Structures are given as C-alpha cells and as structure tokens.
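Journal club prep, notes for RB
We'll compare a predicted complex against what the paper describes. Inputs for the glycinamide ribonucleotide case:
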Amino acid sequence: MSKKLRIGALASGGGTNLQAIIDRCADGSVEAEIVVLICNNPGAGAIARAEKAGIETVTIDHRSFDDRTDFDKAIVAALQQAEVDLVVLAGFMRIVTETILDSFPNRVLNIHPALLPSFPGLHVQQKALDYGARFSGCTVHFVDSGVDTGPIIIQAVVPIFDDDTEDSLAAKILVQEHKIYPRAIQLFAEGRLRIENRRVIIDPPLANEDVALINPPLR
Ligand code: GAR
C-alpha cells in the first residue's frame, strides 16, 4: 500500500472545515491523514476537534511573536517536525508568507468563502451582500504570495436571496466548503493537479457527473 498523504492543517477558529476533512479521511473518501493541527488561537474550537480525533495539536500564538517571519518559521518547524506533505489552511486567519510557501512550494491549499477573484480578504459574505451580487460561493485554491490570488482548483456557487443575511449566506457557503475542500485534497492526493501558468489542470479529468465547477452542488 502506498504511503498516505500527510496533511498539516492550520486553523484559527471553529474548525468545521477541519472536521469535514477529518471525517472524509476517516471514511476513506480522502486518502490522507491529518498528522498535526497548528493553531494560532489558543481558544479555537478547531483544537478540541483535532484532539477528539487523536490528532497532534500545536498552538503557536502569533501574539507572542514580534516578527511575522519568526511566527512563520515556528509554523514551518512544526510542519517539518510532523513530516507533512501538504499544508491545508482551514479557516486560518493569518496571511501566509514566503517563509511557509518556499518550504512547501505548490503544497499549500486554502478555502475562501467567496467566488474568487471576487471578494478576496475578510468579511466577504457581507461584502457580497453589500455589493448586491446574485451569486457567491467558495473557492479552493493553491496559495501564492498574494492574498487569495492563487490558482483555483474547485469552486461551488450558491445563490444570494433578498432575505439573506451575513450569517445565512455564510452558513450556505459553509455547506459547500465542506464538500469541495475534501474533494480538492483527494485530487491532490491522487496526483491529479498540475498548474500551467495559473490554471489548474485536473489530469485525468473528472467524469461528467463530477465536474470541477459545482452548480448544482456536489453530492
Ligand atoms: C470558513 O468560511 C473559511 O472559508 C473562512 O473562514 C471560515 C472558517 O470556518 N476562511 C477565510 O476567510 C480565510 N481567509 P471553520 O473554522 O468553521 O472552518
């Protein structure tokens, strides 16, 4: 049996995406294992979720570092210590710098709760509402040195209705996040993702019923 992909997850918050990945690894639909969770926020719900799943947790509080590079170096050291193959940002609310990217080239994934390149950054559900967009969604992408600018792997679309609020839209988007993030990780695990210029080529391609643009949503 080939060696399972070793994932290092970085999270800051409640960890529902982390949970979705834990669950899909457990049921075998993602052929990988999360070997370490690194969290910058000592109180984050993600830590309890990882502990419950028997995953090693490391808390690296950004507030105890004067320098961003030193913070990122501490993260890299923990990832390397755990012999991680792939870094997965699961609601990680710090900007990832070259220190991490150079150590894991084309091996850092992120999930973003909007349809990039629309609405990068923070509070993007409210921004989509304020803008009057009729659709939003979520994006799994490789991380590059920009903010939410890296090559796109999978997107899912959700409609925005007149009575949506920031919370209701975020909840709808999260349902899709929990589907597309594990799927993208499995594609990576299968070695099917190749970056050409800034396009992600899925090779071999997905079958018709299993497309990378998800609307209607992935089952
Ligand atoms: C998710 O909506 C994720 O897309 C977003 O934070 C939430 C984390 O939820 N990430 C970002 O905005 C990254 N800039 P979770 O902790 O329940 O997975």
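Talking point for the session: The helical segments are 16-26, 45-52, 68-81, 98-103, 124-131, 166-189.
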